Every structure is written in C-alpha cells, then in structure tokens.
What does this fold into?
Amino acid sequence: MRLIFCIALLALAPITLAKRPTADTSKQFIDKSVVSYPKVVGDYTLHDESYDPSRLADGVSLAYAFKDVTAHLQFNIYIYPLGRASEADALTGAMQEVEAAIRDMEKQQVYANVQFDDIGDFSVPAPRSFLDKDDIEQKAKASPKDDAAATTTAAAPVVEADKNSPDFLKDLIPATTLVGRKRPLRFMHNGQAMRSLAYVFYSQLFLIKVRASVAAADMPADAFVARVDRAVQDLVPKMAVHNFGKCGTMMISFPAGTGDKKKDDEANARELFREMGRIGRENCSNSGPDEPAPEGREQQVIVFPADTWK
It folds into this structure.
C-alpha cells in the first residue's frame, strides 16, 4: 500500500489486498492515523509542532529544545505516512529524499558547499504497539470499556519463545530494536559553517525523519554527534502511530490440507501468527473511538480522504 497523492514519499509498488466480504465498504487501507508524542521527556521539551490537514503527506513536524545544551541546536522530528513497504526500500528512499531536499536548498543558495558523509545503520529501542501487554493492562485498569464501544483487532497473546518453540512464534514477539539509518553532513549557511545529522526510520507504516544542525563554532563535532545520537535514542521510541482501517483486519489464507493433521495445524497456525504479528508491527486496528491524548502527550489525528490508498 502507498499514499497515491504524495510525490514526496517513496514511489513503491502497491500491495493489493485480497477481496473479502465486509459490512463496511467505506473503509480503506488506513482511514485515520493518530500520531502521538511527548510534551516533555527528560532534558527535552516540545516547543513547536505543526500539522496541516491540507498537506497530509507532510505529516507532523516537531521541534524539541534541549535543557542541557546552551548552543543553538536545531532538532526536528518529522512523522509522515508511507504505507506498507519493505524496511530496506523505505529507508533507502527516505534517505534519498533527505539528500534531494538538501541539494535543492543548495540550488536555491540557502545552503552552500554541502558535503555528505557515508550512510550507516543506527538503532533505537522500538516504539511500542497498542498490542503490548503492559499498555493493554494499563488502559483496561484506567477506563474499562464495553466490548461494543470499539471494534479493534484482538490483542496478540504474550509469547515467550524458547529453543523448543516453533520457529513461527517469533512473528508474535515484539521487536525490541528499530534499525534506521544515519548520515552526517556539513554545509555553509548565512556565512556560518554548520554541522548536521540526518536519521530515518520506518515504523508503524510511517517514516520518522530526524534533522539536527548546529553552528560548527558553537559545538565540537564529537560533542554534537554524541548529544544528538542520545536525543534520537531517547525521543524516537516515544513517537507512536496508531492506524485504523483495513490494515487492522487479519488476512489469512489457509493452505490446502495435506491429510497430515499435525502439519496442517502448524501451517494454519503459521498463517494466523504471521498476521497477528503484522498487525502488532503496523499498529493497526479496524476502528475505534476518538480518545484524547494521554496525560503528558500531544497528538494529531490524520484523517485520510476516501481513495487515498491504492
């Protein structure tokens, strides 16, 4: 799946969902996405946020201030929709977008003498899914709801695999690490030499991009890299996207029976667990009530017009 109106996003091949009977023909791959983020985390304070419903593809833009940094360090996080894609293609395309945007700024003479260093992997703790056991228990204790209040995908059971567990159980085990990419760069801006870092991640059907910049005279290179790396590791895991739409429906195609009950049961379980794991990774529900942001967090609700996803 991909967002058809977004030129800025990756031009990835769409995935066609299998046809199935449904009582709600108005739903699409994603009807809406709730993007939430913290106001304050440790040494970081949200001081600016932006979302323009007329520019859905741009998603949500955030700026955080650092309590412990005296230099004028600009730190921005951009969270915008992509859809279903391979992690490798998503990250490659996102980093290409970063370079293209910066090269465009160079052509406009906003930047000068842009120099990119090599791209490397960069890992952070994985953002949590609504299927995480602790989150579910906390929500249930805080505000019990009637079963009819929302139609959401059933939570996957908590699974702890050991050496004797079937290999497909790994699909139900939430990832603990999110692997993205990082690229240092340098440029001149308003006569000043600037240090900059760009990071990209693919999580919960959205891209998360981070840009940080500081005047070279204001902060040594090693200190800048170390401080921004830590900020990315602290803040990116706190970004959450809960998607609502057909992505929250389990699409299970059970293989034809072989006559061997044990093998058939395992094949069926494999398909079931694969879909349950996907729903957790994509953080999808069929539908749900509008809820305010949790205490200490802000959120933006992105509502996608009909036929947005193809």
About this structure: The helical segments are 87-107, 133-142, 221-235, 261-282. Residues 4-26, 133-160 have pLDDT under 50 and may be disordered. Residues 261-282 form the longest helix (22 residues).
